[in-house]
Amino acid sequence: MSGSENSPNTKGSKGSRNRLLGLALAGTGAAHFAVPAAFEPLSAKVFPEDTRQWIYRNGATELALGLALTSPRTRRLGTLGLAAYGAWLASRALAKR
């Protein structure tokens, strides 16, 4: 067994990290449905109209993107989607300042 197989930069380690990130994002998305009130203080600032509906929409988006990040087959699309979603959220937040 060579030292490079245990390196933190190996493909397996990177895949595990990406899977963990995806699961964390998916878990956050699911939490939007389980405890939506926890997201209301922040969401109300960015989505003052229909806040609860936006909490559910954002939860569904985060759940889908998180799951996309967990699989190597969908990771690229998930990454692109996450970048677009992040940019959209940032633009909403800046517009509501």
Which labels suit this protein?
single chain, 97 residues, mainly alpha, 4 helices, 74% helix, globular, disordered N terminus
Structural notes for this entry:
The structure is a single chain. The chain is mainly α. The chain has 4 helices and no strands. The longest helix has 24 residues, at 11-34.
Summarize the structure.
Helix content is 74%, strand content 0%.
Topology (elements, then pairings):
Elements: H1 11-34, H2 40-46, H3 51-70, H4 75-95
Helix pairs in contact: 1-3, 3-4
Could you report the average pLDDT, rounded to the nearest whole number? 90
**Oligomeric state:** single chain
Spatial shape: globular
What is the percent of helical residues? over 70%
| Beginning-to-end CA distance, first to last residue | 55 Å
> Structural class given helices, strands, pairing?
mainly alpha
Q: Outline the biggest β-sheet.
A: none
Give the beta-strand count: 0
